[in-house]
Specification:
Elements lengths: L5 H17 L37 E7 L5 H8 L2 H6 L3 E7 L2 H9 L5 E4 L1 H10 L5 E10 L1 E5 L14 E4 L5 H12 L14 E4 L5 H6 L5 E5 L2 H7 L3 E5 L10 E8 H6 L1 H20 L1 H16 L5 H9 L1 E3 L5 H14 L14 H9 L14
Family: Belongs to the bacterial solute-binding protein SsuA/TauA family.
Subcellular location: Cell inner membrane; Periplasm
Organism: Streptomyces zagrosensis
């Protein structure tokens, strides 16, 4: 191998290693995803199987999402078999992720086709690819994010100075929101290091409750169910992020798709969106049953379920929605710029709501808008 070819070979090797590393994330050929139960806490039914004709001649579609209450549409849609029902003979294969950047890497590597994800990773991924890797094709959830603090140390926003506040990851949706909020309060923080008048510590969602309990942090800006876990550990909600947005609505989860997959398999994408819309209807019509299904899905994915004192407020704080709330995504992108995390976000063409609006029209529902950021 020549020296000139070595960098190219190394990049190819890294792509192969990434694909190999992502493969174990596949949830045991769906065996780990039980589909509900007639028994109270069983949560064990055979996985929904593909039946009928394959859409676009495709054997399977690989779908990514998080084990978070803010991804309730995906959790319930898979758990209840509502998405699989629309896919017919094309089998859904779920992958789970802990953070948006790793899901974007999987999409870029061709390891997943469709994903539920927060707005900031979607914006970052789209920008870094020059608008070539993904499209946002639907909304999924609004709300479900809070700043929870130790009430003995922090009683008002003025008490945040000198304190340690956690977010799930540098540059993720909650990190951007916290930095924007702190800047609005006059606090000076270096967005890259998290150092400043307030120390912003980036830590995995699943680790934050333990760190909070041990006194390693004084609070956290986090999504559900982490926020409710902190409250259960004695924390107090200093701010519900819904209070910062018009009508209390802001996008916390979108549905994205690989542009290549969207072009080659539109019937599959439409079926997943139909399943998502039907799932949101089911969640709204059966909130108690949906809450149990979310918990059953979390148990199957993580090995443990949420206590009722955590589950109920977490579920109540999240609103499932088909609307991508595109205006709020534009605002969140600007917040990332203001914080110094992104220089020039690319937003033009990030949305393609064609198939979603087709599904909504067929069901007699109003169309949703892309705030002028759709494909031309």
């Amino acid at each position: 191998m020549t020296a000139a070819l070595a960098p190219r070979a190394r990049r190819a090797a890294r792509r192969r290693l990434l694909a190999a590393a992502l493969a174990p994330l596949l949830i045991g050929a769906l065996g780990a995803c039980g589909y509900g139960s007639d028994k109270e806490d069983d949560g064990k039914k055979p996985a929904a199987k593909a039946k009928g004709a394959k859409l676009d001649g495709l054997d399977s579609v690989r779908v990514g999402y998080f084990a978070n209450v803010t991804h309730a549409t995906a959790l319930v849609g898979v758990q209840e078999g509502l998405i699989q029902k629309e896919l017919g003979g094309t089998q859904i294969k779920p992958f789970t992720f802990n953070a948006g950047p790793s899901e974007i890497e999987a999409l870029n590597a061709g390891s997943i086709d469709i994903g539920w994800i927060g707005p900031s990773p979607a914006i970052n991924g789209y920008t870094k690819s020059g608008g070539q890797n993904l499209r946002i094709i639907s909304g999924a959830a609004s709300g479900g994010v809070s700043l929870v603090v130790n009430p003995d140390k922090i009683k008002t926003p003025d008490d945040l100075k000198g304190k340690r506040i956690a977010t799930p990851q540098k540059g993720n949706t909650q990190d951007v929101a916290l930095l924007n909020y702190l800047a609005g309060k006059g606090y000076d923080i270096d967005a890259q290091t998290g150092k400043g008048d307030v120390s912003v510590l980036r830590q995995d969602n699943k680790e934050i409750p333990t760190t909070f309990k041990q006194g390693g942090i004084d609070g956290a800006w986090v999504p559900e169910p982490t926020a409710s876990k902190l409250v259960a550990e004695g924390g107090k909600i200093l701010l519900d992020e819904r209070d910062l947005w018009k009508d209390g609505k802001f996008v916390i989860t979108n549905v994205i798709v690989s542009q290549k997959f969207l072009k080659e398999h539109p019937k599959v994408v439409e079926a997943v969106l139909r399943g998502a819309v039907n799932t949101n209807d089911w969640i709204k019509a059966h909130p108690d049953a949906a809450k149990k299904q979310v918990n059953a899905a979390l148990k199957n994915l993580t090995g443990s379920q949420l206590d009722e004192k955590v589950l109920s407020p977490a579920f109540k704080n999240v609103d499932v929605t088909n609307d991508p709330l595109a205006e709020t995504l534009r605002d969140q992108a600007q917040h990332a710029v203001d914080a110094g995390l992104v220089k020039e976000p690319k937003l033009d063409g990030i949305y393609d709501l064609t198939l979603l609006n087709k599904v909504l029209k067929a069901q007699g529902k109003p169309k949703v808008k892309d705030a002028g950021l759709g494909v031309s």
